[in-house]
Structure formats: structure tokens, C-alpha cells
Design goal:
Elements: H1 99-111, H2 116-130, E1 135-142, E2 147-154, H3 160-170, H4 175-182, E3 186-192, E4 198-210, E5 213-225, H5 232-270, H6 280-297, E6 301-308, H7 311-318, H8 320-337, E7 343-346, E8 351-357, H9 361-373, E9 385-392, H10 399-416, E10 421-423
Parallel strand pairs: 9-10
Antiparallel strand pairs: 1-2, 1-5, 3-4, 4-5, 6-8, 6-9, 7-8
């Protein structure tokens, strides 16, 4: 989601992000400072809400921001120190730019953009400027809230965007809401900006298609102060920008979902589904690393193998559901009782393995046995565990030897009765 990509080559006097020649008459009434096109982001980013397609951009007066240094890449052209820096991305793109240049620039933003928030902001700023607009918004459907939320905005005075968002979300007759609901463009809608000046707007639906099925995701809206007869060229640009914005949002959402899926797969690959502890595969790796470290540093290491007493009988007498409850209870005790430096995992059907750096393996093991024995009975059955302890390097010089020694110690413990503890090598 944060991957950087090469930026466009920069020329003196060229819009940094878009490559469009910049024209900005700051003395014109429509370009008054409080209504110049500018995008700022609030702390809630688009990326954080992609699985629900939510809000993320707050806009205010055009900020004066330093131009970011161009990132190195195949298309970057270094600038000599004596060359004047090109305008910032917050400068307004010219309406006089040729449509093909505008669209080529928009495609470049999507193909070689930055983060989802930055790409969405850049596309909206470019779209608003390309049709001569003074205000622009992107509203997206929020699956959790079931209504429209403001995802990006340009050209609003400070503090006005919250009221505008509430007006759109709470008014089904608002042109933006009608477009988002009906997925039909509305051209020439009249409105007023916060200072009372009349505005003419155009709204365009945002939608994506998967497997031939279109999914509405929101609406793009651009407004201009004063008279505006929306031309065929304007509608062509708005339709193209709506598609590019929809693709940007959808791509970011799919990326977020893929990332969540990868994290889930990674998590289940290393944990036991029933108990939530690490699984045997994960602990085997941890044990190998701890043995290697103890060997290098000349320190102690203990391996403790726990076995739940009578679990097979509990499964047979009262059912596997109770057996699962017992397993989860013992796992919870282990997780609560072991030290922060220890690692515990489910090792087998009714066994848990603890890797405890240092010489305190017997103490930690006894603490676990006492904690389990002190828990309330489950389905009328008291729960106890037995344990066998092996120590590095006295009982084994490798992970395999230590586990084998702990198994032998566990057999000795179980031979003496439930809830017993034994150390490897004890006569």
C-alpha cells in the first residue's frame, strides 16, 4: 500500500504531478485564496477504510507546501541547483490544457502513483481543474454505515466540508446522493457555496465491474462558481476521471483485502486453531534458534513437555467438546503463567511444549502445574497436567535431543501419578 513508484519527468514551469503547464490568475475572483483548489489529508486515510470504502480526506484553503524532492527512478531527470523548481502539485491545473494531455496525466497518476490517498487527491484536483471547477468531491459508499462518506474534497474553506458531508449523506435528493443511488450523471445542478455565491455542478457515478457485474461505489462531483454550460468535452473528461477514480479506489481496496488475507494465512500457518497458541512447526523453529543462541552465549535453556492427565478418558466419557474445553483452559493457563521470554505451543493432541531460556525451567513448570490444578473443574472433571523438564546442554545438545529427553522425563512424571513433575536424568 505504501510502495513508491517512479514519478513523471519534470520540466521547468510544468505541473509536478501532472505534467500540465500551469496557469493560475490569483487576482481573479474565482481564484480567491479561500476557494483555490487545494487538497489536504486528515489522519483517517483511505487505506485504513478500504475494506468498507470509507472517508479519509479533509480539505481547507490551499496550503503553501514545499515541493517534495523527486524520487529516483527510471523516468526521473535530475535538476541542476541553479534551475528554478517546478510548481507544487497543489497548484491548479489549467483548463486550457489539451484534453489528451489531461487524460494522459491522469493515467500516469494511476499507473505510477504514490499511496491511495495521494492518488485520489491528485486525480480529484486534476479533474476539478481540467473542467474549470472551483470545488470537487469524491463520495464513497461505506458498507458498515450504509451511507455516503466524504473520501476527498478540494476547494472548500476550512471547516465547511463536515457540514457539506452531512448535507449529502442526510439528503437523498441531493444531486450527489441521487447520482450515487441511481448511478446516473446529473449535469447543471444549481447550488451555493458557503459564502452564498451560486454554483453550477456536475455529478458522475463511480462504479467498478468484476466478472461482468457492475458495483456502484459512489460519486464524483465538480462545481463551478457562476454560469457553466457543461460541454461535451467536460462530460468526456468527467466520465474518464470517474472511471480512473473508481479503478484507483477498487485497486486499493483489493490490495488491502489481499494484504489482510496474506496476514490471515500467515497467522494460521503459525498458530494452533483450537488453542490460539503457536503450533509445533513454529516452536520447532524457535527451539532451534534458542539452542543455537544458548550454545553461542554459554547460557542455560530448559525445554518442558506438558501432558494433560486423563484427556483421552474425558473425551470418551463426556465427549470431545469437553476435551476441547479442557485443552483451551490449559492453553489459557500456560499463556498467562509463562514468562515474557518463554515460548509455549501446542505440541500434540494433549501435549504442550515450553521453551524457557535460562535456568528457571523447573520453577516455571511447577508454577504452571499449580495454576492448572487451581482452576475450577470442567464438566465435573478436575484438570491436572504432568510435566517433564530437559536442560541444555546437560540433557541434550540439539533440539531433537532435548525434546527426546523431555519426553523421557514426562514418562517418569506420569508414572508417579497425575500432576507430577520430573527432570530428565533423575534416577
Amino acid at each position: 500500500m505504501e510502495a513508491g513508484r517512479p514519478v513523471l519527468s519534470l520540466e521547468q514551469g510544468v505541473h509536478e504531478r501532472s505534467g500540465i503547464l500551469v496557469v493560475d490568475d490569483r487576482h481573479d475572483e474565482l481564484h480567491a485564496p479561500e476557494y483555490r483548489v487545494g487538497v489536504t489529508l486528515e489522519k483517517h486515510t483511505l487505506g485504513a477504510l478500504l475494506t468498507r470504502v470509507g472517508r479519509g480526506v479533509r480539505c481547507g484553503p490551499l496550503p503553501v507546501r514545499a515541493r517534495a524532492a523527486p524520487r529516483p527512478g527510471p523516468s526521473s531527470i535530475p535538476h541542476p541547483s541553479h534551475v528554478q523548481e517546478p510548481p507544487s502539485v497543489t497548484d491548479r491545473a489549467s483548463r486550457d490544457s489539451a484534453p489528451e494531455i489531461v487524460l494522459a496525466t491522469a493515467v500516469a497518476i494511476v499507473a505510477r502513483g504514490q499511496t491511495p490517498d495521494e492518488d485520489l487527491a491528485a486525480l480529484l484536483e486534476l479533474a476539478t481543474g481540467a473542467v474549470g471547477g472551483n470545488q470537487g468531491t469524491v463520495f464513497l459508499w461505506d458498507a458498515e454505515r450504509g451511507d455516503l462518506v466524504l473520501a476527498a474534497a478540494v476547494g472548500f474553506p476550512e471547516g465547511a466540508q463536515a457540514a457539506y458531508e452531512a448535507d449529502v449523506a442526510g439528503n437523498p435528493d441531493h444531486p450527489i446522493a441521487r447520482t450515487a443511488h441511481g448511478q446516473t450523471a446529473i449535469l447543471g445542478a444549481e447550488s451555493v457555496r458557503p459564502d452564498g455565491a451560486p454554483m453550477i455542478g456536475a455529478t458522475w457515478p463511480l462504479r467498478v465491474a468484476h466478472d461482468g457485474v457492475e458495483e456502484p461505489i459512489g460519486a464524483l462531483a465538480v462545481s463551478r462558481a457562476g454560469a457553466w454550460t457543461v460541454s461535451e468535452s467536460d462530460t468526456t473528461l468527467l466520465a474518464a476521471f470517474a472511471d480512473l477514480i473508481a479503478v484507483t479506489v477498487d485497486r486499493a481496496r483489493l490490495t488491502a483485502m489481499a494484504s489482510e488475507r496474506a496476514e490471515w494465512v500467515e497467522r494460521i500457518a503459525h498458530t494452533d486453531a483450537l488453542t490460539g497458541l503457536a503450533n509445533a512447526r513454529t516452536l520447532s523453529r524457535v527451539l532451534e534458534l534458542e539452542v543455537a543462541r544458548a550454545g553461542r552465549q554459554g547460557t542455560d535453556l530448559s525445554v518442558v513437555l506438558f501432558d494433560i492427565d486423563g484427556l483421552a478418558a474425558a473425551n470418551a466419557d463426556v465427549g470431545p467438546a469437553v476435551g476441547d474445553d479442557i485443552l483451551r483452559e490449559v492453553a489459557a493457563v500456560l499463556a498467562e503463567t509463562v514468562r515474557l521470554v518463554d515460548t509455549v505451543a501446542r505440541w500434540g493432541g494433549d501435549e504442550f511444549l515450553l521453551v524457557a531460556p535460562g535456568p528457571a525451567g523447573m520453577i516455571v513448570a511447577q508454577r504452571v502445574l499449580d495454576a492448572v490444578a487451581g482452576r475450577p473443574a470442567i464438566a465435573g472433571r478436575a484438570c491436572t497436567v504432568s510435566a517433564g523438564v530437559a536442560r541444555f546442554p546437560a540433557d541434550g545438545a540439539s533440539s531433537e535431543e532435548l525434546v527426546t529427553a523431555a519426553e523421557a522425563a514426562l514418562r517418569m512424571a506420569k508414572a508417579t501419578g497425575p500432576g507430577a513433575l520430573a527432570a530428565a536424568g533423575a534416577a
